[in-house]
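Ticket #4471: complex job returned nothing on first submit. Input attached below:
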Amino acid sequence: MALLTCQDLSLGYDGHEIVHGLNFEINSGDYLCIVGENGSGKSTLMKTILGLQTPTSGKILTGDGLKPNEIGYLPQQTVVQKDFPASVWEIVLSGCGNRTGLRPFYSKTEKQIAKDNIEKMGLTPLIKRCYRELSGGQQQRVLLARALCATQKMLLLDEPVSGLDPKVTTEMYELIEQLNNNDGITVIMISHDIESAVKYADRILHIGSEIFFGTKDEYVKSTSARAFLKGGEENG
Amino acid sequence: MAELFEKLSLYLQYPFVRYALIVGVLIALCSSLLGVTLVLKRFSFIGDGLSHVAFGAMAIAAVVGLTNEMPLVLAITVVSAVLLLRTGQNAKIKGDAAVAMISVGALAIGYLLMNLFSKSSNLSGDVCSTLFGSTSILTLTRTEVWICAVLSVVVVAVFILFYNKIFSVTFDESFARATGTRAGLYNLLIAVVIAVIIVLAMNLVGSLLISALVIFPALSAMRVFKNFKAVTICSAVFSVACALFGILISILAGTPVGSTIVAVDIVGFFIFLVIGSVKGGING
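Support reply: We reran it on our side without changes. The output follows.
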């Protein structure tokens, strides 16, 4: 069975339907990029997968032992976080929140998981630093480490490179690729950066007036990609 | 100086002075704990809004002629708090506007009711003491002190037990909800606790100045410390120290209790502001 299956999914809010008839499957180890114009429903789809919003119709099924709360999420930064007084350690540890249940405090195992993920993201020297004083790339790595504390199976990344400079962007993409290749973590990413999407992902979901789901080779040849890729080239 | 201490120890022999100190310190502690969360969630003014609701509720209780107004005031304030924090996410009227609306609305209705139906001969005195804190902090009974102590212990216990959840929900509600934390429940908890604190604090500083107890400790601590735990502990200590000094000064100098505490808070804030910029200058 697939890790995540969307059946006849329709999405929307306040009675407006933005996307309908969405069907796709994600298997363990996939790297899926969700692309599409602004307002096409990418973020709504992600919120629905995370269970923050209910679909207007259709179903999302999880399989292969993936529990709905075991999806690591890397949200876009909020205004609140810009001046939040929290250390790297506190933020990463809060990713273990789905393991504690009703237990009020974190156990030794959970603290070790947080430590390991901080190490993995190369943040150990910054562990006591304040989040708001870090650079954009470092902040993203902190949030990635937190997401890794919540999951060993699937990461959902909402435009993880927005606002980062080109060098840090490449580093971020390579980091995500490593997690996908070496740790076998399934990656679902929303991206505006269509060229990198085609470069790193192995599957593409394009939502908009036409819906496309398939491998990246199929996507590059498809009609929905043509206009989009061209636009990407002009902008880049 | 010795004279001052003599005067103080004389005052401290009176039970009502000791009660005032105990209650003042407890309320200051409780209000500072959630202050950090409220300030960070952009709800600094919820204290103000809710205390005006409590003022309105007190007016209703007075008009109806209830002898024990506490339960009614508490109930109305808790309901308003829940509604305000709920609407924070996807309401037609956004957070700050909703707080402002309820705040001035309740104030106006409360005053109107008191004006129309009050039998008291000293109406403006009554209103003034509810708004700026009455001398009732000095007329507390033993039972009131006990109620306050028990509620404070409950608030502190709830805060410590749910400290990690409160942190997650404050820092990133979407992530917390996505990973299975029942954020709605914790927002509700925060709302109820803040309402309880406000009803308690009305005796101390009155409904106009409650916001000061909530925001000054948090803002001061955030100038100096850079992680959540240190900020929380620092704001609790700051708040208790300011309340203690404020009450002692007001007893010795005969100034109004509430405004004196807030004045001490303001002085404390500027001290922390200076410390923060000096420290930041060294680090940076």
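The radius of gyration of chain B is 19 Å. Closing as resolved unless it happens again.
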